Amino acid sequence: MDGRRLADVFEVRDFIPPLGWLDDDIERRFVLMLLRKTNGDLGGERVPILVCPECADYGCGVFSCLVERSESAIVWRDFGMQTGDNPEVCVDGLDSSIRFAFDPTDYYNAFKVRSLC
Questions:
Q1: Dihedral sign, CA of 9, 85, 109, 28?
Q2: pLDDT digits (tens, 9 = 90+) for 59-84
Q3: At what angle do helices 24-34 and 104-115 cross, to 10 degrees?
Q4: How far is CA 4 from the centre of its chain?
Q5: What is the mean pLDDT of the chain?
Q6: Considering only CA atoms, which of 86, 7, 80, 91 is closest in space to residue 42?
Q7: Would 15 disulfide with which of 32, 43, 44, 50, CB 3.0-4.6 Å?
């Protein structure tokens, strides 16, 4: 979205993506959720996309979304903040119309190495 970090678009403090700094097995789990190859950890099929930059623990809070596949795109939508494994999603102040659509080929290729798919 106009070159800004996702965390800045939604103003979710210093949360960061869970990729590139966690153990391989943990990172692979996040990738599999983003690829929709395994269920999300957060209930309601929500996928964590931004986590605590110190520990990635959901107890510190996690920014999540729904990841869907349409005929022409992978879509991230219904963004919100959660804490721990609480299924309640806080959307206060978030623009519910924001969606990110990705070309499916580019999307899957971006995660190919990390997921070993």
A1: positive
A2: 999 999 999 998 899 999 999 999 87
A3: 160
A4: 16
A5: 86
A6: 86
A7: 50
